[in-house]
Amino acid sequence: MATKQRVTVLDVARLAGVSQGSVSRVITGKNWVSDRLRARVEAAVKQLEYKPNPHAQGLKSLKSRAVAALVSDISNPLHGTFLASAEEVLSAAGYLLFVSSTNNDRDRELELINAYGSGRVDGMIVAHSDENNRRVIKALQETGLPILFHDREPRRFGDAVIVDHAHGAYVATNYLLSLGHQCIALLSPSKAIRPGRERFSGYKRALEEANLVVQDDLVSMLGASDARAYDVTRNLLKRSRSRPTAIICLGTQMLAGVLAAINESGLSIPDDISIIGIGETDLVRLYKPSITAVKWDIAACGRHAAQILLQRFSESNAEKPSAGSVVRSPVELVLRDSCAAPRKQ
Amino acid sequence: MATKQRVTVLDVARLAGVSQGSVSRVITGKNWVSDRLRARVEAAVKQLEYKPNPHAQGLKSLKSRAVAALVSDISNPLHGTFLASAEEVLSAAGYLLFVSSTNNDRDRELELINAYGSGRVDGMIVAHSDENNRRVIKALQETGLPILFHDREPRRFGDAVIVDHAHGAYVATNYLLSLGHQCIALLSPSKAIRPGRERFSGYKRALEEANLVVQDDLVSMLGASDARAYDVTRNLLKRSRSRPTAIICLGTQMLAGVLAAINESGLSIPDDISIIGIGETDLVRLYKPSITAVKWDIAACGRHAAQILLQRFSESNAEKPSAGSVVRSPVELVLRDSCAAPRKQ
DNA sequence: CTGTTAGCGCATTCAA
DNA sequence: TTGAATGCGCTAACAG
């Protein structure tokens, strides 16, 4: 039942009438080879349908021409966009991208880092679920591999592609303030990761510049789930007084929950309540009314991430590792129809 | 700048005062080893933080303890659920799952199959984008690896986990017929893949059993995008006569487009038009009105897929490959608030 | 420019 | 049960 015998460099060399080393040279493409030799080898490769054994290659070269991406939740469409564009760049350079979902499980993160770190990949793109977890940081550093942090705090090691969430939240809050809102709720995923902290700080700065103070009960940073956001929103809307006149919801899934809760309450957007969402998702664009939202160029982030890693791979041949680079993606507010001045009380 | 020198079996053997072979034996766990020896080796492993080199392991053993999953679109939440549960089972068995997105690009599919097929993984989970593409089928078969088709037609080789989409569409259509609808539109992704074909056949069967005939202009199977679905729906709703009184939309992203178009038209659900959607997404559950939808146990599908592959891995030690297995997942209709009898004309 | 050769780290024979 | 010895398929260093 063996489908095919493995064909090796030796078979190719024999058929092409050259040495094994020469075959390797044309495969790797790193050395000069005469056109004639190359042609013969390539013909033999094609005829035999030779495919190099990645394990043997990796064993000798200590490289695997692969990158791992660790994401918390593989089904988040924002991650999907990022990964797809990163993969495009990597695959154009001959690298594979292995995507693994950690499902926000700390142990799983460690396992994956160790599994990938022991030679399976040449570098990693990481968006870990808790930046306070020292063990994850340590494990990453100990791989000795180029690490690219995606939307996580830059470290003393590794590079980072980060998003200016603080600015996004600042602009969003300012916009609502300029419309006359004073009671603005903020929903966003956890403060254990950079996006959460940054958003909160941008929100806070905008309020303070307007001589307002953050009301803790208007801020919820308890996880990314739509169900949680639904509950939070219901509670916010139930209040008789100090009901928020605007909600900034900076989570893709969460937004669905917020909208559902508002729908159910019978309040109308934007007359009764203003909404600012996140991303360029179907929901945001097509909802009625369409949702004003902060956005950034996620595909560009993915491309940058890939390019930085590729750069690292090429320079590790040289002796001097340059300093960690940080690419910061700007965030803008896309105005749509979900915001208006609050009702006169 | 080298972070750590690689520690090898030899280092462990030296520290434990045993032979290299013995270390290997305790690592693989396949041979009997005295407790004393095992203890010494394990201590040394821990002390040195030894991690086996997967390339060296793979080179000798011809196994990689990894599985690749090829999906068309990594950001589809239905895929995410499937992959997360498959990964859970695989990782419990010590296998890694590499997820790669083909973005519905045929060439990319072939590249990935070849890249993974040449030793990087022990098996693959595949949902290819066009079942008519013989080259993809051929490439899969030629890997000689256990292949698991996900929601694709079972082949002469490989196993399959499929969903009874025909039944789902049949039940959905019947339900609408029973409410009195006669003019029912069907939107679903491509007929180039099994789900599309099956859904169409279920829809058709239900209509025919009611002595109705499929009207081609009520059926659209042109791709999964929400934008396309939006356009299609707008056109459907624009018709003065023979405007459908119900729409069955069997695509996750598409549903967003359909709902947006309906919103825009000013029609109300379910009074003016009934809707049947798909999946257990936020949108379906939380939309107002909530959307009646077909669903199946996606997580179970993922688990089955993983289990079947694991089974294959263990039996390949034996000589007789058993026949391809096919797991068929039932589909049910979850009744919510988006369907009602059509208005009397 | 090309052939020859020596391992990469490990699993697995063969002896003992 | 354990140690010694042999490649797995390939890359790279060294000659020529």
Automatic annotation (TrEMBL), chains A, B:
Residues in HTH lacI-type domain copies: 7-61
Keyword set includes Secreted: no
One Gene Ontology MF term: DNA binding
Naturally occurring in which organism (per UniProt): Candidimonas humi
Entry keywords, A to Z: DNA-binding
Signal sequence extent: none
Pfam families, per the entry: LacI, Peripla_BP_3
Lineage summary: Bacteria, Pseudomonadati, Pseudomonadota, Betaproteobacteria, Burkholderiales
PROSITE patterns named among the record's database cross-references: HTH_LACI_1, HTH_LACI_2
CDD domains: HTH_LacI
InterPro entries referenced in this protein's UniProt entry, alphabetically: HTH_LacI (IPR000843), LacI/GalR-like_sensor (IPR046335)
Name of the protein described by the UniProt record: LacI family DNA-binding transcriptional regulator
Stored PANTHER family: LACI-RELATED TRANSCRIPTIONAL REPRESSOR, TRANSCRIPTIONAL REGULATORY PROTEIN
